[in-house]
């Protein structure tokens, strides 16, 4: 089990620098869905694995479609990094000025990855940065995008990653994309924690953000999360989602990098940590609520997973 969980933790390198190029009338929803997963990933990882900056062409203030003001850290021309995300939203076509397009082309030499969120693909394509690439844009703009840029392979997808070009269709897609990027760099365990963290506690209709792409895996994880206190046998989980246990194990290992037993254990321990940090329940009560009849067994699993016992974490 320890080897499995260690295999989910991939990267101990320096923080990844992600910069967001804002324009007036940008979507505050899209910005939050881009930055908050990185902020939460830093918190859950216990270290700075992402840094981000807000940029504008001139280094001034950008005002969202809802009137929210964001003070830029500086001008686009002053910075470089791992990824630049162009984030226009409403009234984006007039933004494709000669100055903006020159700035984006120059930035492509300073950033490892160029991305366009919401209507950002339009600016990247206008700058010639998506020629020969697969890309998407907000679906309301897809037909016009296809007609305007025949050299771009436009696709009706929530997001597209094609080499060093990344595009996505809107705010919710941005959140899903960020979770996938984080998982690829830092492991599926962190993605599971992020998805659980941003789950609305009032939601009763399944995951707001799916933890897996396969419908059967999404249903399997839903069952696991609904049965943390009385864990189901993996064979029963498989039966309820219409799969054999062997097939479920193979699919989950292929998509999430770990077998169902490890994923289920991780979800139970995530819940245990939440109760340790947010309640005054005893370790014995937390153990029962997370499917452990023996508090000592839960404590051993907790320490193996998080590097400290529940009591040590609570004191810390």
Report Rg: 22 Å
Q: Alpha-carbon distance between the termini? A: 26 Å
Largest sheet: 7 strands, mixed
| CATH topology grouping of the largest domain | Rossmann fold
CATH superfamily of the largest domain: Class I glutamine amidotransferase (GATase) domain
Question: What's the overall geometry?
Answer: elongated
Domain HTH araC/xylS-type: 218-316
Protein name: AraC family transcriptional regulator
GO molecular function: DNA-binding transcription factor activity; sequence-specific DNA binding
Keywords: Transcription, Transcription regulation
List the helices and strands and how they pair.
Blueprint (H helix, E strand, L loop, with lengths): L1 H6 L8 E7 L5 H18 L4 E7 L4 E3 L5 E3 L2 E2 L5 E7 L10 H10 L3 E6 L3 H7 L7 E2 L6 H7 L4 E2 L4 E4 L2 E4 L2 H16 L1 H10 L17 H12 L7 H7 L4 H12 L3 H19 L4 H7 L5 H12 L3 H6 L1
Parallel strand pairs: 1-2, 1-6, 2-5, 6-7, 7-11, 8-9
Antiparallel strand pairs: 3-4, 10-11
Helix pairs in contact: 2-6, 2-7, 6-7, 7-11, 11-13
Tell me what the structure shows.
One of its GO terms (molecular function) is DNA-binding transcription factor activity. Keywords: Transcription, Transcription regulation. This is AraC family transcriptional regulator. Residues 218-316 form the HTH araC/xylS-type domain. InterPro entries: Class_I_gatase-like, DJ-1/PfpI, Homeodomain-like_sf, HTH_AraC, INH-QAR. It is a single chain. This protein is α/β, with parallel strands linked by helices. The protein has 2 domains: 16-183, Class I glutamine amidotransferase (GATase) domain (Rossmann fold), CATH 3.40.50; 199-316, Homeodomain-like (Arc Repressor Mutant, subunit A), CATH 1.10.10.60. It is 47% helix and 15% strand. It contains 14 helices and 11 strands. Helix 11 crosses helix 13 (295-306). The radius of gyration is 22 Å and the shape is elongated. Residues 1-11 and 200-209 have low confidence and may be disordered.
């Amino acid at each position: 089990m320890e080897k499995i969980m260690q295999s989910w933790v991939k990267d101990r390198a320096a923080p990844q620098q992600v910069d967001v190029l804002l324009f007036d009338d940008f979507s505050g929803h899209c910005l939050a869905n881009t930055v908050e997963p990185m902020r939460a990933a830093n918190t859950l990882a216990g270290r700075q694995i992402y840094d981000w900056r807000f940029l504008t062409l001139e280094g001034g203030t950008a005002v969202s479609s809802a009137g929210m003001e964001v003070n830029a850290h500086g001008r686009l021309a002053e910075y470089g990094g791992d990824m630049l995300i162009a984030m226009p939203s409403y009234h984006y076509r007039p933004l494709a000025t000669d100055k903006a397009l020159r700035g984006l082309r120059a930035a492509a030499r300073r950033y490892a990855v160029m991305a366009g969120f919401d209507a950002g693909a339009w600016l990247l394509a206008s700058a010639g940065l998506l020629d020969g690439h697969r890309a998407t844009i907000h679906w309301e703009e897809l037909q016009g995008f296809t007609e305007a840029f025949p050299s771009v392979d436009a696709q009706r997808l929530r997001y597209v990653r094609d080499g060093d070009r990344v595009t996505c269709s809107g705010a919710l897609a941005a959140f899903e994309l960020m979770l996938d990027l984080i998982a690829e760099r830092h492991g599926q365990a962190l993605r599971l924690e992020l998805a659980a963290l941003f789950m609305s506690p009032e939601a009763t209709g399944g995951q707001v953000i799916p933890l897996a792409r396969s419908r059967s895996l999404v249903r399997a994880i839903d069952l696991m999360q609904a049965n943390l206190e009385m864990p189901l046998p993996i064979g029963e989980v498989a039966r309820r989602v219409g799969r054999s246990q062997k097939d479920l194990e193979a699919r989950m290992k292929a998509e999430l990098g770990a077998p169902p037993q490890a994923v289920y254990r991780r979800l139970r321990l995530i819940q245990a940590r939440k109760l340790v940090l947010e309640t005054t329940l005893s370790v014995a009560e937390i153990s029962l609520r997370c499917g452990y009849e023996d508090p000592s067994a839960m404590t051993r699993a907790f320490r193996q997973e998080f590097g400290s016992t529940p009591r040590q974490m609570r004191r810390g």
